[in-house]
Specification:
Chain lengths: 632, 575
Amino acid sequence: MADFKINIVADLESLKDKVSAARAAEKIRISLCMGNGCLAAGAGEVYDALKESLEKHGVATKSDLFDEGVKDNINYTHTGCQGMCQHGPLLQIDPENNSDKGITYMKVTVDDVDEIVEKTIMNGEVIERLLHKDANGVSYKNYKDIPFYQLQTFVTMKDCGRINPHDIREYIGIGGYLGLANALKSTPADVIKTMTDSGLKGRGGGGFPTGVKWNFCAKETAPKKYVVCNGDEGDPGAFMDDAIMDGSPQSILEGMRIAGFAIGADEGWIYVRAEYPHAVKSLGKAIEEAREYGLLGDNILGSGMKFDIHIKEGAGAFVCGEETALLASIEGKRGMPRPKPPFPAHSGLFGKPTIINNVETFANVPKIMLLGADVFKQNGVEGSYGTKTFSITGDIVNSGLIEVPMGTKMSDIVYKIGGGVLNNAKLKAVQVGGPSGGCVPADKADVSMDYDSVKAVGAIVGSGGLVVMSETACMVDVAKYFMTFTQSESCGKCTMCREGTKRMLEILTKICDGRGEDGDIETLEELAKAVSDGSLCALGKTAPNPVLSTLRYFRSEYEAHIYDKKCPAGKCTAFKKYHIIPDKCKGCSACARKCPVGAISGELKKPFVIDSEKCIKCGVCAATCKFGAIEF
Amino acid sequence: MSGTIIINNQPVAFDKEKSLLEVITNAGIDLHTLCYNKQLAPFGACRMCIVENEKGMLMTACTTAPADGMNIKTHTPRVNRIRKMALELVLGNHPSECQTCDKSGHCRLQDAANAYGVDKIRFKKPEKDPKVDNLGPSLIRDNNKCVLCGNCVRVCEEIQGVKAINFAGRGSNSKIACAFDVPLSESTCINCGQCLAVCPTGAITPLDQTWKVKEAIADENKLVVFQFAPSVRAALTEEYGIENAPKAMAKATTALKMMGVDYVFDTNWSADLTIWEEATEFLGRVAKGERLPLFTSCCPAWIKYCEEFYPEFLNNLSTCKSPQGMLSAYVKKYLADDLNLDLGDKKIFMVSVMPCTAKKYEASRKQLVTKDGEPETDVVLTSQEIIKLFREYGFNLADLAETPMDNPLSQHTGGGVIFGVSGGVAEAVVRYAFNDGAVVEACRGTQELKEIDLDYKGIPVKVAIVNGMDNAGKLLDAIKSGEKEYTIIEVMCCRGGCIGGGGQPVPNEMAQRELRKDTIYDADYLAALKNPADNPDVKAIYERHLGEPNSHAAHEILHTSYEPRDKVTGQWSKD
Ligand SMILES: Cc1cc2nc3c(=O)[nH]c(=O)nc-3n(C[C@H](O)[C@H](O)[C@H](O)COP(=O)(O)O)c2cc1C
Ligand code: SF4
Ligand code: SF4
Ligand code: SF4
Ligand code: FES
């Protein structure tokens, strides 16, 4: 059980001071990243090994944050995602609780732990080998100096890799719940005003102003209302919400409670996809702790406010991230969107007024309530204030999770933070906004990453997925990839999306398979327009975006596939042909004898030829030829 | 809310319409929608009702509430493009077998495709799914023809409270199915056919058994006997534009005789008989104060629903067979005797024509068999099927001569004919036991629930009349919780009563049902006798065979029993 209950704001403040003092007294804080990326890279084993090694070497570690009796006052703990997932597991060693003096190790393995304990922890020596080295061979002792981090601005992700997410006291120690305290001291109307003034827009994809949404709901007079947090995060390759839920769960709970106060709700639901077991666990633990400390339940912080939160594990359908489908799913119904209006703010969960916001949106709220709208607005640009998390994947040097002020140039994200295109290849395009977004071509790479500018180039900020593509990407194939995703995720309710995505995929597949015909592009365009105009929910309405944007910028690639029967990027195998390089062929006939369809002919000792009409591209010939004379 | 909306540049006043689509329809514009049904919650799936406002915003009219000052256009190039594409996409998945489809001529998809001039289908049709659900006693469900409008799912849940069918699968693999993908006959489906009534396409049709009837007529060894339910005459007047119900029946009799049918009787006669039995049973229970409230038992869909979901009330059901069951049982046992027929090797083949798909299922109930274990009713044809048969024979009923129906099982009173509407059975009971044949206005109308207070020899009698299975379920819950108390409850599964049965011609909306209701009350008005107690041909059979109502002999052929069923599979629990 909790050491004590937080009954009034003063309790919160005194606990904060106590935690700060305890942390300040720590000689060394060792934080292993246990975010999903690092766990996948073996952080679980490293955690145990390091613990064992510390014991073996007689390094006493604190058993609890407030355990000060330990000789060296060393705290060995774990955190949520520290950002550079690609180089995990990440280990941060901060002497005297000062991260500026810290040492950041990457790609730590079980074999490294003894050395880390002996050299770094016991003797303060830096192990050069475990530091991050950039492409130019420069190595960095402290993560803060790495350009990847240096160019970012952390707000919602600030605490994520820096505190133990399973200890509410650490969150309180860095100012957690003071935002809520501020809110409770003012009025719901003031809170909504601050939110509206901040200009925060929903981070779940729609970009709707959060304060305005809350205001709609606050105006409803129903006695029962709900606050729902959308943690479905179904975009392939997106994992920022997971990182926040796992690494900073209390910030979401705090944001939801502030929302509850603003609209007059006493109950909250967090919808998390079941494929995020760590986030579910972390949130569950956080709710439990908040209840124990009196930060959930009756009379929160002595204000008389009542609030509790439940978790609903979703079955992981993309469409369940759509708010009306999500609400249906919490209600135990089939996760199918329904037409709006009525909007959830008027009639939502169980027919009651409900606000539903994204994880990252909620994570911004405590900061705004703590520091004020003006501080929030210091980041970002007109119409798009604050920071935004993005996940960068694809052909990029530093893939991972980042947070930057809105309005950052896309090229800065790709080249400066992301370290450029993999293998120094040329950038072709970036798919922005996941399957609902669009492809931004390289010549538009300096687009400012704000809602309006991104929309103007035919994409959407969406939830912040960035897929970087080099010259080797075929844009028809890319459109096909995203259409495959949306068509399989369509809920099937409305005709346009259900049948339209299926037929668009059919045509894209046909084009990639070399069976494209005159008229296909026109049908595709007609379909794309009708589906985006005519679908019921945003899944269908935005499903054609990858097709429309690739047609807008890369139409000639479609035409090359259809009319010249060529894939300019050399990606679509249908257009590839096996052929024999005459200079290399010795005329041994080995290939001709192996070909299952008799497509190879020739005279012995003279170069053979492959009849591409007959060839079924099985590749047996190429594998047979001892002289490397057969190419694909 | 009321106000004015500009539709296609013309001001249109609206008053109580719930959706913009209703306003548009009432203004005389048909958008050829597929997923809209006035009695169901709007769904917004077919996208055919999309309209554009003056700002270029698109909205589905079915899900938009009308508001004063709206300004919309229903047929801009943009919305027409969407509709045409929606139809092309649907047809790309549709077998397009209109010539051989049961629904041809009444199909909303056919109608829409035609109206919007869909002239090409650029998409390859998928392989047909050979799995058609035709194993049950009453309905055929062919998902190949389904456009996933969800009407059937919603009617089954919202109006009938059964939830036998739902969406299964996702995206383009979506389909309508029972839980665990079992056939309807292995589900809780009560065979009401209301799904069929709201299906815009031929995906749900009545199980066609006309071939069996044709075979029987051709069979020398079969004496083919027909009976006609009250509501079928309302379907026939509607279909053929015949003046009134008695005329329609006289013409139908001509048609059947031309086809070679031996006897044509009237279920109205056995409806009168039902009242003799049921009213007697009721008054007996009132006198003893036991097994009350009494529930009527003429609706087989209601019987199955009660067996599945409310077995605790089975003891309260009247043990009377339905009028169909009574007539069939009587014919098989006594007809030869009554008419002095020497049947020799001939067997009686009993066909009943019903407004109802559930009657097909009723005929298959294990309790409704003769002493030799044969079904009392051999085949049930729906109104839709009899009309189809007449078409095959080339009859335009309106032009046929009139032939009286056969004696002695056709004469009836107004009390028998009104069985076709919700409130009819209750009114007939009142006429028999309380007021000697007077009209009871309080029983009339298609409201979901009607309540009437009566007095029987100083004992207060509280009558409830409910239609729509979900309404009945709610009423049963209220009785269970003690919130409501009644003495007798008439339950009809279909909204409006049997005139809206699943076997009736489509469209089968409340608007049609209202007209059919008028036809039925009109027939009551035309009937010489009003009180079932005055039916001489019913009196006669008691004198000749049965003694008195509820006698042992009467019980033997006119009463039946019920058994609880599994709530999930719908099968008899004991079997
Ligand atoms: C197909 C589809 C999937 C969505 N998935 C998510 C999601 O995973 N997470 C999310 O926060 N919002 C998602 N949304 C957006 C939500 O419907 C909703 O707009 C959002 O949760 C509102 O929160 P916000 O205003 O804070 O962004 C999705 C929308 C659609 C149409
Ligand atoms: S647009 Fe797609 S996902 Fe949305 S309701 Fe229609 S079918 Fe379902
Ligand atoms: S027949 Fe009635 S119970 Fe059966 S599926 Fe159709 S609507 Fe439901
Ligand atoms: S079976 Fe008929 S009513 Fe049911 S979803 Fe399909 S088309 Fe609609
Ligand atoms: S009638 Fe409105 S979408 Fe089908």
